[in-house]
Amino acid sequence: MKIGFYPGCSLTGSSREYNESVVALAKALDIELVEIKDWNCCGATAAHVMNEELSLSLPARIMAMAEEQGLTEVVVPCAACYNRLKVTQHELEDENKRTRVIEILKLPYRGDLKIINVLQMLEAYGAENIKTRVTRPFAHKVACYYGCLLVRPHSILKFDRVEDPQSMDTLIKGIGGTTLDWAFKTECCGAGFSVSRTDLVAKLSGNILKDAADRSAEAVIVACPLCQSNLDMRRGAINKTLKNPIDIPVIYITQAIGLALGIGAKELGLKRHFVTVEL
Amino acid sequence: MRCYQCGKCTAGCVLASDMNYPPSYLMRLLQTGTRQNMDKVLASNSIWLCLNCENCLGRCPMEIDIPKMMDYLRTQAIKENKLHPDSKPIIAFHRSFLDSVRNTGRLYEIGLVLSYKFRTFNFLQDLAIAPSMYLKGKLHLLPEKIKDRRSMKRIFAQTIENAKTVNK
């Protein structure tokens, strides 16, 4: 099984453990990831907030490059990149916008690339292999945290249930884990305010962690590098806002499944987290 | 505007309590159609604190695209130079982020943070977590550059640096 791969900037920098675990897990599941050549940043929230044409042109170049490379399906592990690529594809169905963007890029763009997130990749190409290859059941009670960008806007992404998504829960149950019914599955962690308004991120991420901790989660499972870095790297700032400091780790779904398949903690990047992972 | 003030957007907005006007209140101000109320909206921190998490849109019974409206209002606020002080660090962050993309094609995190510090004069921020990030291998000292950087220059020149497009 071969599939296109757009890592995005976070996965090459502050969230490289997400990249490491995606790559290690894909290998274990016989999925060959083909990286898009000379890919650029999707522009994230910054482009989206500052200039509409820029916010469409940056993801469009990525997709045009993938099309040129002959890829038909691309997995995008970062929820923010996934969201920007999907929304751009939707916006560029408008002929005027598409014509304008093609004129800016000077590249052909068809718009028929299939963009999927990491949960969809695991559901579609990994489910059977995961089931048969579990060597170390993930016997933990965890809170699956989806955040905003994986599920909203539902009218465009058409992924899972918007208020109470289940895909990550199903994957965790498949490796022997127990998932919590909790209140903050799709609440915002503060996302792009990590640097500009750390105080607000500490408050929002604190609310999320507190609910997970109150329901005795052993870990929070995520599929977004922004959620992970806010809940993990900002733990110092978060704990300052809470009465009782919280020490539950925040790991990627790919790391949880990797552990169940017997992949080593180091290979999965589990040593790179700020909050120590002992699962 | 089709809003009938049910308040679901405000109930679901994670930052409503930090805003000068929560989303449903902002919708009501806009519905009045007066210049005075429009000015209140543009000069408020609400439009800058909106995280575009899209919870309001997901729950609005009238499917009003409030996040898209926020994008428009931010553009207007910059055009009319009616900027709430809360907008400053947020705009500074976005500008620093885009500078990195323009120059390298990707996000260079150290460059972003340094440029942000110079824009905001907040030099002490995040000094505490940077060494741990480095030790855990989360920081590249040098930027990763794409090969076709000319395409970035062209995209920026024709969009955000082009006076004819809607700019901020």
What does this 3D model show about the protein?
The complex is a heterodimer of chains A (279) and B (168). Chain A is an alpha/beta fold and 279 residues long. Chain A has two domains: 2-118, Glutathione S-transferase Yfyf (Class Pi), Chain A, domain 2; 135-272, Rossmann fold (3-Layer(aba) Sandwich). Chain A is 47% helix and 10% strand. In chain A, the strands form two sheets. In chain A, strands 2-1-3-4 form a four-stranded parallel β-sheet, with helices on both faces. A four-stranded parallel β-sheet of chain A has the order 6-5-7-8, with helices on both faces. The longest helix of chain A is centred in the N-terminal third of the chain and has 17 residues, at 52-68. In chain A, 61% of the residues are buried. The model of chain A has no long low-confidence stretch (mean pLDDT 96). By secondary structure, chain B is mainly alpha-helical. Chain B has two domains: 8-79, no CATH class; 87-158, no CATH class. Helices cover 55% and strands 0% of the residues of chain B. Chain B has helices at 8-12, 23-32, 35-42, 46-49, 55-59, 66-79, 87-104, 109-120, 130-135, 149-158. The relative contact order of chain B is 0.10. The model of chain B has no long low-confidence stretch (mean pLDDT 92). Chains A and B meet through helix 1, helix 3, helix 4 and helix 11 of A and helix 5, helix 7, helix 8 and helix 10 of B.
Summarize the structure in short.
The complex is a heterodimer of chains A (279) and B (168). With 279 residues, chain A is an alpha/beta fold. Chain A is built from 14 helices and 8 strands.
